[in-house]
Amino acid sequence: YQQEPHGNQPSILKSTLRIPLRRVLPEDVLDPTLMKIKGAKTETKDMTTAGADWLNGQQLMIKKDKALVELEIPNVMEKAYDLELYSTAGPGYSSFSVYQEGGERLRVADTVVKEIYPLPARTLKNVKAAGGSIKFVLDFQGTISLDAIRLVPHREFITDWYLLGPFSNLRENDYRRPGLDFAFPPEKEIDLNKSYSGVNNQSIQWQRYTGGKAGYEMKLRQWIEPDEFVITYALTYVYSPIDQSAILLFGSDDAAKVFLNDQEVHRFFDLFRIAAPDQDKVKLSLKKGWNKLLLKVENNFGGYAFYARIIGATSEIKISSNKTR
């Protein structure tokens, strides 16, 4: 039961809302009613009587009207995604397949059950985007449901960096760590051949590190010693054939700053956080030619890493730590 507000007597929940979850939807799923659909009639169906497994307590019912049913997800930023589709099986629900022109076909709902049942996600791999949208085709007879859609981007992280560190964090306590706002030498000059005094008066120099496949996390603990209560700089260059805007998607452990062409464009500071992709979204104004991208990554204690990638450029860019196109 649930407690009514203002101290009133508790009321009994509907029995359907007490059904244990059979499917957990990720927090970042999309509402399928926001898609553009051609070749079908649609309606929104209330699913609250069937349990709590459906996004916003409803699902999108799609009834075929033409030979092909085309769906479009607008306003996407990536070049490619894995497409997760959530649907329902039961009386009155047809099985269906999904595909993209020239791509593989995925059977989404092919389970025959006597009662309404929320199906787990099925994933169509490597779905391409074009013109800022994703288009794909449904193949079925009768009526189907789309309960939720999730786009998992194919992330291409920057893996070519020069690193310099560790510098002292100047840490006084967990909340007073002024090292992030102290201008160490890389904020004043870039000289890849010069040595500097780091933590414990050790001599440090710029060292080039390149990652492996796309999706690589720059784990600073592999190269920086000591790696707690320190500051490290990461340097690379972005070549743009024109003046244009782009977006840096960045994640760090812990605090960080971003500089573009010697101008601070982003600052994040907190007690700590675990590095993950795309935690921060930073607008970049790229000029024609080479643009200097400098990251300043601070570690309080524990893990030490960052992720960085650039999306949203209208004209293709190149990234190289030694300005090689």
Please render the helix and strand layout as text.
Elements: E1 36-38, E2 40-46, E3 58-64, E4 69-74, E5 80-86, E6 88-89, E7 96-99, E8 105-109, E9 117-118, E10 122-128, E11 133-140, E12 143-146, E13 148-153, E14 160-168, E15 195-197, E16 203-205, E17 207-210, E18 218-219, E19 230-240, E20 244-253, E21 256-260, E22 263-268, E23 280-286, E24 289-299, E25 305-311, E26 318-320
Antiparallel strand pairs: 1-4, 2-3, 3-12, 4-11, 5-10, 5-13, 6-9, 7-8, 7-11, 14-17, 14-19, 15-16, 18-25, 19-24, 19-26, 20-23, 20-25, 21-22, 21-24
Task: Report on the architecture of this protein.
- The strands form seven sheets. Strands 14, 17, 19, 21, 22, 24 and 26 form a seven-stranded antiparallel sheet that branches. A five-stranded antiparallel sheet has the order 1-4-11-7-8, with no helix packed on it. Strands 18-25-20-23 form a four-stranded antiparallel sheet, with no helix packed on it.
- It is built from no helices and 26 strands.
- It has 325 residues and is mainly beta.
- It starts with 35 loop residues before the first strand and ends in a 5-residue tail after the last strand.
- A hairpin with a 5-residue loop joins strand 15 (195-197) and strand 16 (203-205).
- It has strands at 36-38, 40-46, 58-64, 69-74, 80-86, 88-89, 96-99, 105-109, 117-118, 122-128, 133-140, 143-146, 148-153, 160-168, 195-197, 203-205, 207-210, 218-219, 230-240, 244-253, 256-260, 263-268, 280-286, 289-299, 305-311, 318-320.
